[in-house]
Amino acid sequence: MSDHFFVVTGGPGAGKTSLITELARRGFHTTPESGRTIIREEMQSGGDALPWADRMAYAERMLARDLRAYSAAQALSGLVIFDRGIPDILGYLTLCGLPVPPHIAAAAKATVRPTRAAKILGINIRTIRSLMDTGVLKSREVEELKSGRIRRYVCAKSMERFSKVHISVVELATESGRLPGVEAVIQLNRGAKPLPLGLRANMIFRRSDVL
Predict the structure, then answer these.
(1) Are 116 and 67 in contact (CB under 8 A)?
(2) Which of 58, 60, 10, 4 is nearest to 30 (CA)?
(3) Domain locations along the chain
(4) Cα separations in angstroms, 130 against 35, 72, 125, 159, 197
(5) Spatial distance between the Cα atoms of 129 and 198, rounded to a whole number of angstroms
(6) Residue 5 and residue 80: Cα distance in Å, rounded?
(7) Separation of alpha carbons 38 and 47, rounded Å
(8) Strand pairing partners for 81?
(9) How far is 201 from 96, CA to CA, in rounded Å?
(10) pLDDT one-digit tens code per residue, 165-185
């Protein structure tokens, strides 16, 4: 977690959104509650990821949006105020009597499943595993609630540090409009050295070497 991120949580009607609206008016960075946004989008599109329809799909949509919001907030300076957070999703599922999927439980504990980390960072799963093996991404063993298996999950804090220091050739290509292969050749010709990762992993550079 970041030391400049704050989550405002509490029961319905407690005044969370009013408080955050006022903080936004005063110039603070704020992130709206994902649940309300999803309800509005689903009703407009005719979807069923709603708390009175498919509750699990609703929870998954909230998680995906909250993770994107957390990732986007890394680039912001100063305090960032969130209207609810990932632990609220765990509480919602528990209140509804629904099982808590292991990736949601892990996210609430500030760890992320490798496949989800790959999606958030925009790199393939082989790259994630190589980054974990080399210690660039810190990992933690997590017991999955349903299976009881112990698996390695990625620490969210290390993903934050990674995003600040490193950049993938995929992200560079997106920014430049070039194909990833072309971007890789350009960066290598400029003398940038990628991290020594395994075969079929995406190229990862230090930001200071390419920007």
Answers:
(1) yes
(2) 4
(3) 1-100, 111-211
(4) 35, 24, 9, 14, 6
(5) 9
(6) 5
(7) 10
(8) 6, 30
(9) 40
(10) 999 999 999 999 999 999 999
